[in-house]
Design a protein that fits this description.
The chain has 316 residues and is α+β, with helices and mostly antiparallel strands. It folds into two domains: 8-124 and 296-314, 3-Layer(aba) Sandwich (Rossmann fold); 133-293, Sandwich (Tumour Suppressor Smad4). 32% of the residues lie in helices and 34% in strands. The chain contains eight helices and 17 strands. The protein has helices spanning 18-34, 47-59, 70-83, 97-101, 108-116, 142-152, 158-175, 235-247; strands spanning 8-14, 38-45, 64-68, 88-91, 119-129, 132-134, 137-141, 180-185, 188-193, 196-201, 225-230, 256-261, 263-267, 272-277, 280-285, 288-302, 313-314. α2 packs parallel to α3 (70-83) and α6 packs antiparallel against α7 (158-175).
């Protein structure tokens, strides 16, 4: 059901997100002031203060837009799943995968204006790993090591950081090419070697129009986990899979294996495993137990967004 009521939004911005650091508080405030949004408050906060403020506002049923990357949006999702109250997002991270999934524009000005119009609350699937929530994907192997490096070099411009990041990814792929993993997907056991394993909340688009669309979901309410293993054996394999991540078609590469299931368990024979969860590097105890919570997250989405999911609508 569409919500046609005018909202007075609280805007909460993670001041340490990449987009917020680039724009700065004054420009971000100006973009909000010049938009068509009706605003109750604008706050430029460190992430710990943002989460606390969001919890208070969300549990009170206030209309909130959260600006940050996928990690910030994930932290707020844990609260919204509990409260049952939806919220909207302003993509200010590096990848902004969830924003792409729900069809938001890459322009901050367009996103702000889209929330000034009609909105839907859509009930989206949520993934869990060892009872922690995630919205996009979890990765072990190459991805968390690259995430740690990118976090360390966040202050550098892309023209300086990206060549080094590429070399880190290639070196990590080589180092981890014989990593042994034990998977249990819906009761079926698989023993594999993988330099990078990704578990996604719903499947990635298998026929993308371009590279970045290959990291967009086919749907957000299929109630499944996608499992993707990348095992390049040679330097040529590693360069090829990286190029296909840019140009599209990475799932069809000969070094990629894919599965899906409703529950996934991963054992690495380590007591604790480094992983990336919605872009944030962390360590969790093994085995890593993944589940999917169907239609668990209320997300406020502009009616004009190019939303590819089929989540149940309900009043905002």
């Amino acid at each position: 059901m569409k919500d046609k009521k005018s909202k007075d939004f609280h805007i909460l911005i993670n001041k340490d997100s990449g987009g917020a650091q680039f724009l700065g508080r004054q420009k971000m405030q100006r973009l909000v002031d010049e938009s068509n949004l009706s605003i109750q408050s604008f706050r430029f906060l460190k992430v710990t203060n943002l989460i606390q403020t969001f919890s208070e506002l969300n549990h009170s049923g206030e209309a909130v837009l959260v600006g940050g990357g996928d990690g910030t949006i994930k932290a707020c999702a844990e609260i919204a799943v509990e409260s049952g109250n939806g919220y909207g997002i302003i993509p200010l991270g590096t990848m902004n995968l969830l924003a792409r999934d729900i069809g938001l524009s890459e322009s901050i000005e367009d996103v702000l204006d889209s929330y000034a119009g009609d909105t839907d609350v859509r009930m989206l699937d949520v993934g869990t790993i060892n009872d922690q929530v995630f919205l996009c994907c979890a990765g072990i192997g190459t991805i968390p090591e690259a995430s740690e490096y990118r976090e360390e070099t966040r202050h550098l411009p892309n023209i300086l950081a990206m060549p080094k990041l590429l070399s880190v990814i290639l070196a990590t792929m080589d180092k981890l090419k014989n990593q042994k993993l034990y998977l249990n997907i819906d009761g079926k056991i698989k023993k594999i070697r993988s330099s990078s394993l990704v578990v996604s909340n719903n499947n990635f688009n298998i026929n993308p129009d371009n590279g970045i669309d290959g990291l967009r979901k086919e749907a957000l309410t299929d109630g499944v986990l996608g499992v993707y293993s990348v095992s390049p054996k040679t330097l040529i394999d590693r360069f090829r899979i990286l190029s296909r991540l840019v140009t599209g078609g990475w799932q069809k590469d000969s070094s990629v294996q894919t599965w899906q299931g409703k529950s996934v368990s991963i054992n690495t024979h380590k007591a604790r495993q480094l992983l990336s969860l919605d872009g944030e590097a962390m360590e969790l105890p093994t085995p890593l137990e993944f589940r999917v919570m169907p239609s668990a997250l209320p997300m406020l989405i502009p009616a004009c967004a190019d939303f590819s999911g089929s989540g149940e609508r309900r009043a905002a």
